[in-house]
Design a protein that fits this description.
It is a single chain. The protein is an alpha/beta fold. The protein is built from 11 helices and 15 strands. It has a 7-stranded parallel beta sheet. Strands 12-11-10-13-14-15 form a 6-stranded parallel beta sheet.
């Protein structure tokens, strides 16, 4: 049975926002039920890549697009792209309390097709749109999508050659090979402008990364060389185990199954190895640095 073709047209995709959360949740939920194409000319490569895991993404629409259903995902519409979409049915979403929004935006409603049906995300949105623009809508609350993972990873690192981004990608391949649902948040500079791989999500670097570590199963550092891996020790100090490659101080201080696991440079890991990482996450990880303050005091006295 052929799936209905659906086009989602978004005028602008913020790096973060409620509409954007809805769109990601929507394609996660319905990508198996409909043949969905997401169209948005103004979207970051990272967000486009994330959506493309589930649906086709078009940033530059150069020819007409045919579909059964078109959903205008905001009251704001990219009209140039809209007029290139041939649909059988069209919906337009109402995400805001437009009585309140008039205090902040000078937007004026324009109906593009009298056959448009409207979808409001709440009774508040519906009532305000009736009040301001005399258009009724069906109320469907925004989707809450609970994405569960077998493994939640994070890294705080530059994405330069010696920091092992290629090894991180190979580890992603292993997780995919063995059917592991994972997410890998990477916070750091990206001088080579690498594109996120697998379920890696790239974020800007942050100060005081320790405050985020406890939200993850492991802190990862896949460097090809390190003389002192700050992140590894900070993770242990916060009770979080690590997955690290066998650079010298990792070989010296990682206690397999106690505070983390060593990941070989050649990435030759069996399913048994991966299962151990997932099912035997080290607990009660501890680390306390001793003697370093005293060394400085002795030197500087």
């Amino acid at each position: 049975m052929n799936k209905k073709k659906m086009v989602l047209l978004q005028h602008y995709y913020n790096d973060i926002g409620g509409v954007e959360t809805f769109l990601l949740n929507f394609v996660r939920q319905f990508h198996n039920d409909y043949d969905i194409t997401f169209v948005c000319r103004d979207i970051s490569l990272e967000n486009a890549y994330m959506l493309s895991e589930y649906v086709d993404v078009i940033i530059e629409l150069t020819s007409p697009l045919d579909c059964d259903i078109c959903i205008l995902t905001s009251v704001l519409v990219d009209k140039e792209y809209y007029y290139q979409i041939n649909y059988k049915k069209v919906y337009r979403m109402i995400h805001s309390d437009w009585t309140a929004m008039k205090q902040f935006w000078s937007w004026t409603f324009e109906e593009l097709d009298p056959k448009t049906e409207y979808i409001a995300v709440s009774d508040i949105a519906r009532e305000s749109f009736i009040r301001e623009y005399n258009r009724d809508s069906v109320v469907i609350p925004n989707l809450i999508y609970n994405q569960e993972y077998d493994l939640k990873l994070c890294s705080f690192t530059r994405l330069t050659e010696e920091k092992g981004y290629d090894l991180m990608c190979k580890f992603c391949d292993l997780l995919d090979k063995y059917g592991i649902k994972y997410i890998w948040d990477v916070f750091g500079t990206n001088p080579n402008n690498v594109i996120p791989y697998g379920n890696i999500r790239l974020h800007s670097p942050i100060a005081d990364c320790q405050r985020l570590m406890k939200a993850y199963d492991y802190v990862c550092q896949f460097s090809k060389t390190e003389s002192f891996c700050y992140t590894m020790y900070e993770a242990w100090t916060n009770g979080v185990p690590t997955l690290v490659t066998p650079f010298p101080n990792a070989v010296k201080d990682v206690k397999e199954g106690k505070n983390g696991y060593l990941i070989p440079f050649d990435m030759k890991l069996t399913k048994k190895d991966i299962d151990k990482i997932i099912n035997k996450v080290p607990k009660n990880v501890e680390y306390k640095q001793e003697g370093v303050v005293e060394l400085w005091k002795e030197l500087l006295k």
